[in-house]
């Protein structure tokens, strides 16, 4: 069966296990990215790139956040742009639930016999204002852009070339995400608060570092997108039959 023939969106009535799994993966990766965003990672590479040199520096969220685009592209392909935008916007709301739970736990009194130092707990889990603002803004813009571009490419190619819309949508949205997160989180918000902002070269180094990783993941995950989409199309069409008969 060709992509164009199999390219119709799945029936959105039955909430199959595969669909729930994609939503769960998206939200899990998203909240993990929120919790890990404040740590800066560094990976040595055997060559040099502009601004970053031989060290790819990136926020810790880059690893988990890249998975959200994998999940959203699979979900978009199967269930269409309207359902994908719903998932993105619900995920945005879940960020606030996460923040409320984390900060309420930080504010709650610690038991005198706890082995975890409350100050350390707050330092590790209590993301600073600049990280919170930057990550939320970058998320809502880049994820909605990803869904939009994914389906514009899908329309232009008549449902063919899933690899093109997977890589193309992710490449453009991850670039937007990287710029917004880095510049808002490490330059704009600190400057508004009267704190020292990173220099331009350091900011561009963070952008290049995480974008290279995210783009590499987008290319590598393409066979997995094909596998997940193909599997769920065949499986959920079978699971939908009894539901329809009822």
Provide the descriptors you would attach to this structure in a database record.
246 residues, mainly alpha, Arp2/3 complex 21 kDa subunit ARPC3, 73% helix, disordered N terminus
How would the blueprint of this fold be written?
Elements: H1 17-36, E1 40-49, E2 53-59, H2 61-107, H3 118-125, H4 129-156, H5 162-192, H6 200-220, H7 222-245
Antiparallel strand pairs: 1-2
What does this structure look like?
This protein is mainly alpha-helical and 246 residues long. The chain has a single domain, classed as Arp2/3 complex 21 kDa subunit ARPC3. The chain contains 7 helices and 2 strands; from the N terminus they run αββαααααα. It has helices at 17-36, 61-107, 118-125, 129-156, 162-192, 200-220, 222-245; strands at 40-49, 53-59. A two-stranded antiparallel sheet has the order 1-2. A hairpin with a 3-residue loop joins β1 (40-49) and β2 (53-59). α2 (61-107) packs across α5, α2 crosses α6 (200-220) and α2 crosses α7. The longest helix is centred in the middle third of the chain and has 47 residues, at 61-107. The two termini are 28 Å apart.
Please give a quick description of this structure.
With 246 residues, this protein is mostly helical. 73% of the residues lie in helices and 7% in strands.
């Amino acid at each position: 069966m060709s992509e164009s023939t199999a390219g119709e969106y799945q029936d959105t009535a039955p909430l199959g296990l595969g669909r729930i799994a994609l939503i769960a993966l998206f939200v899990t990766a998203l909240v993990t990215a929120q919790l890990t965003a404040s740590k800066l990672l560094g990976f040595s590479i055997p060559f040099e790139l502009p601004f970053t040199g031989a060290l790819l520096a990136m926020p810790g969220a880059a690893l988990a956040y890249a998975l959200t685009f994998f999940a959203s592209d699979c979900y978009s392909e199967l269930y269409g742009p309207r359902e994908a935008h719903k998932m993105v916007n619900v995920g945005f709301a879940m960020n606030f639930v996460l923040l409320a739970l984390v900060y309420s736990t930080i504010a709650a009194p610690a038991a005198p016999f706890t082995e975890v130092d409350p100050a350390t707990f707050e330092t590790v889990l209590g993301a600073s204002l600049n990280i919170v603002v930057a990550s939320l803004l970058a998320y809502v813009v880049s994820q909605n852009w990803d869904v939009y571009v994914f389906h514009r490419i899908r329309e232009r190619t008549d449902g063919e070339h899933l690899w093109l819309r997977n890589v193309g949508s992710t490449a453009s949205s991850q670039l937007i995400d990287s710029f917004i997160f880095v510049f808002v989180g490490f330059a704009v918000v600190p400057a508004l608060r009267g704190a020292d902002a990173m220099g331009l070269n350091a900011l561009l180094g963070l952008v290049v570092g995480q974008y290279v990783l995210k783009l590499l993941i987008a290319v590598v995950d393409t066979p997995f997108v094909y596998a997940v989409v193909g599997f769920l199309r065949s499986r959920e069409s079978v699971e939908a039959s009894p539901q329809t008969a009822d």
